[in-house]
Amino acid sequence: MASVRCCVLIPVYNHGHTLKDVALAALRFTDSVMVVDDGSTDGGLASLNGLPVTLVSLPRNQGKGAAILRGAEEARRRGYTHVIVMDADGQHKAEDLPAFFAAVHENPCALIIGARNFHVPNVPGSSRFGRKFSGFWMFVQTGVPVSDMQSGFRAYPLALLEAVPCSETRYSFEVEIVVRAAWAGFAIKEIPVSVYYPPREERVSHFKALADNVRISLLNARLTVRALMPIPFRRRALEVEGKLSLLHPGHTFRTLCASASPRQLAVSAAWSLFLSTIPLLGLQTILLLFTIGWRKLNRLCALVMVPLTWPPFVPGMAVLLGYRVVHGEWLTQFTIQTLGYEAGYRFLDWMIGSLILAPALAAAGGILVFLAASCYAMIRKNSAERRNASCGPAKV
Q: Taking the CB of residue 391, how many other CB atoms lie within 10 A of it?
């Protein structure tokens, strides 16, 4: 990714009484602050007069998600690579911005979420429940543990917002974008942040308890159904992180070798091939994303291996092997009878054959990746030594 340029983005809707303080606090840490007005009607934007902030206005209230996306468009036009979103109600502390800047530079392709410290006064019970509820469904849908799905303090790579399409435009956008980013192969990182909740009588919230909770529940139902469908997710992160593609094997191989040791690449490739070969009907992606973090695998290498097991070649080989094991002969007739009416038997053959094929592919793929990466590392080392030798002794 190109050099990182961050812009603090503050979406606002009728929070005029706190907006100026939030903007001033952010300006203490950066001169790149953008306020996106989501159709406010309280006249609060006047408080920004004289402040060096960029103002973007939506003609009518469209929702927080729409405001974030509109601000991202303007940030992209101005040459930024990331937006760090802060709420306008004063809940977030600008003192946490340096931690976001550091996290963005360390993980420029990751979606970074500020996990709020709830050990403070006046935290609403609905917020505690909502955090657990959304975290549970996030894990079910992706296998990725996220402790604070509903935190609005986040850093978004603009490339992620551009690559990952979402249907939601209101508060539910913040749930959908995290799930779809994980499906697309982007890393989800969390950093601890502080939070402030005013007393109940002073609190101004535009979260509609009934409408927004129904919207989030329907969204989780859709996402869960999609997670269980045996259809591979498009690995959009590979298009962002160095344009990795099997259509460009040389560039992909060099990028992977630069990202990890030969042993780590080999283990990552072997595990990905093994898991992707087993017909788990949509659960491969969830398990792979979960075990990438759990086993400290190389995420790029694991995701690049997945397309090698897509139909028809690998599943077809598994069916043939399974048929041979069950019936003692090879399946030679591919008709509506054998592949249609007997589909249930073919699935059993597929499962049995995959238990033979998966470890074989994993072993072969792991060994090949290890040998190739080791040879490449040795060639690079020898080339570096020759270049150093050709320079001669250093002059004093």
A: 8
152-189 confidence digits (pLDDT tens): 999 999 999 999 999 998 888 999 999 999 988 888 99
CA 131 – CA 237 distance, rounded (Å): 26
pLDDT digit string, tens, across residues 183-240: 888 889 999 999 987 776 555 555 555 566 788 889 889 998 888 775 667 767 766 6
What gap in Å lies between CA 143 and CA 260, rounded to an integer? 23
Sign of CA dihedral 28, 31, 36, 41: positive
Would you say 60 and 34 are in contact if contact means Cβ atoms under 8 Å apart?
Answer: no
Strand partners, 11: 36
Residue 40 to residue 47: CA distance in whole angstroms: 13
Torsion angle (degrees, nearest 10) of CA 99, 101, 104, 106: -70
Identify the CA nearest to 142 among candidates 290, 295, 274. Answer: 290
Closest alpha carbon to 63 in 213, 142, 174: 174
What is the DSSP code string of 245-281? -TTSHHHHHHHHHHHS-HHHHHHHHHHHHHHHHS--T
What's the CA gap between 79 and 34, in Å, rounded? 13
Residue with tokens 């006249």: 43
Tokens of 79: 């040459």
What does the alpha-carbon distance between residue 250 and residue 246 come to, in Å, rounded to a whole number?
Answer: 9
Look up residue 259 and give its amino acid. Answer: S
CB neighbours of residue 95 within 10 Å:
12
3-state DSSP assignment of residue 306: helix
Type of residue at 99: A
Give the pairing of strands 154-157 and 111-116: antiparallel
User: What is the value of pTM for the model shown?
Assistant: 0.68
CA distance 38 to 94: 21
Cα 19 to Cα 26: distance, rounded to the nearest angstrom: 11
Nearest residue to 274 via CA among 347, 363, 351, 370: 363
d(CA 18, CA 266): 53
Tell me the two tokens of residue 260: 């990890």
Q: How far apart are alpha carbons 167 and 180 in whole angstroms? A: 11
